[in-house]
Amino acid sequence: MKTMDDRRAQFDAECRSAGLTLGARDYDLLYDMWLDWLPERDRLRATMPEPEDEPWR
Amino acid sequence: MAVNVADLDLRGVSEGLGRRELSSVEATEAYLRRIATHDGVLRAYITVTGDTALAQAKEADTEIGRGRRRGPLHGVPIALKDLIAVAGVKMTSGSQVLADHVPARDAFITRRLKDAGAVLLGKLAMHEWAFGRPVTDGPFPTGRNPWDVRRAPAGSSSGSAVAAAAGLCAGALGSDTGGSIRGPAAMTGLVGHKPTYGLVSRSGVLALSWSLDHVGPMTRGVWDSAVMLQAIAGADPDDTSTRHATTQDYVQHLEDGARGLRLGLLKRYYVDFPGLNDEVRGAALTAFDALRKEGATIEDVDAPSLDLALAAWAPIMSEAYEYHAETIRKTPEKFREGLRTRIYLSALFTAQDVQRAQRLRARIGREVDALLSRVDALIFPGQAAPALKFEDFPTTGFAPASIRYTAPWNLLGLPAAVVPCGFSREGLPVSIQIVGRRFDDATVLRIARAYERVTDWHRRRPDPARWTL
Fold it and tell me: What angle do CA A13, A16, A17 make, to 5 degrees?
């Protein structure tokens, strides 16, 4: 189970990787939104596609 | 002129023009007066093109007077969301970035509407770049819901909903990337139709997320939406997504009723969803009973992979990050903070997330297509809850309960329409939604009309006496 410090470190790493440079207000808002959306993203990453699930065209 | 134009739906205006009981100039003047009287409170319009509209109306009256009526939209005053280009008219997308932008060319669909003889009253308010949140300040405030001006009409096509519901135009066009036609239409008691992806051209329409964006009508009645769709549907060489566009006659079968149709109720995912408002659930179930009485067969159906729809939708919305990345890096101050945060969130998905989402999108599509091989259309409540007060909208994030009812159908590109099915105890409109097979928009509209014609919800009008602050 990840602690909030782990989460914060993960978020900072993702922002760096994406090249985002944020002011304090944007940083706080984005962190809250990222946390809110994390369960959906985790669900996406935990779902293994089937071989026939080719990308949508 | 004995009729009160503002009380009419688009069909009423069109038929009044056809019978010569009303001229296009009279109708246009009536809408312009109503805009002048009420738009200070309702805030539906960003730009009103009164002089041009009156010139178009005079031309329409001349042609109609000579017995050359082009079709049902000829002479009918309508308005467009402010991300659809009209040559020579400011197009802002509700953004400081485009505050002074004037396109040189009409969008393909603008040309289609002009060819049909429609009169363009102006450009309508919207959430910033179709992705922001409702706001009450700044140069581009969100329209106010005419059923309760303390409430937002949702978005992003807020002005389109307000103008059509309040009688500030006969019909409007909106756009829908995660629910921006159907949400505001549901909140204001309108019919809102998100056409099949690839049926209506997006060239000359500002993008939010290319593979999720749709443009469609928002009107008081189903017939109204059908004739607007008829005018704008069809292939456009400048939008490759329309190369397989298959058009139908959207009016011909509107009165065929529900008898013999098989409808699939997405009960588990939508009706049983704990976040669904009880009044919406009750009104929707009553509406489905009405369709059953009209001769439709209704069975419960399910597509389990719909549970993945929102998880797949969000990474694909990273198309919006690609669209805005350069501008937001150079001029972040020109984006309001709620929108900035949403766009930045899109940057935090990885390439694998996006491809995973595209693969799950295909899976959901296969499951839903299988359902639609057994039934003619899917039905479910049109929204999670009635309209919210401005201050109750989340500051930054998405509202998952709300987009659950709409975004999966952007993901799959299937035709989807909301139609009003009642009012909450507080007097706020509620709706049902109908989703059909790809390029079978006609059946969606037929089902919507089959319900509409046995109810009178679409005839109710908000009271202008309550449009005060």
Answer: 85
pTM of the model: 0.97
Spell out which residues of chain A touch residue B348, defining contact as CB-CB under 8 Å.
14-15, 18, 20, 34
SS3 labels along B378-432: EEEECCCCCCCEHHHCCCCCCCHHHHCCCHHHHHHCCCEEEEEEEECCCCCEEEE
Which residues does chain B have within 8 Å of residue A20's beta carbon, measured at their own beta carbons? 344, 347-348
For β-strands B172-176 and B377-381, DSSP reports them as: unpaired
What DSSP string runs through B19-52?
TTSS-HHHHHHHHHHHHHHHHHHH--EEEE-HHH
Check residue B104 and give its pLDDT: 98
In single-letter form, the type of residue at position B452 comes to E
Omega before B156 cis (within 30°)?
Answer: yes
A13–chain B Cβ distance below 8 A for any pair: no
Question: What residues does each domain of chain A span?
Answer: 4-42
User: ipTM of this complex > 0.85?
Assistant: yes
Q: Which residues of B touch A36 (CB under 8 A)?
A: 397
CB B241, CB B197: distance < 8 Å:
yes
How far off is chain A from B351, nearest CA to CA, in Å?
11
Active site residues of B: 81, 156, 180
Task: Name which of B345, B349, B366 is nearest A30 (Cβ-Cβ).
Answer: B345
Tokens of B408: 């999966």
Using the beta-carbon criterion (under 8 Å), do A45 and B398 form an inter-chain contact? no
**Helix or strand (DSSP H, E) at B266:** strand B262-266
Integer Cα distance of B31 and A55 in angstroms: 47
Question: For residue A51, which residues of chain B lie inside 8 Å, CB to CB?
Answer: none
A 25-44 residues with CB < 8 A to B: 25-26, 29-30, 32-34, 36-37, 40-41, 43-44
Q: Report the relative pairing of strands B262-266 and B297-301 from DSSP bridges.
A: parallel
The pLDDT tens digits of the residues spanning B171-186 come to 999 999 999 999 999 9
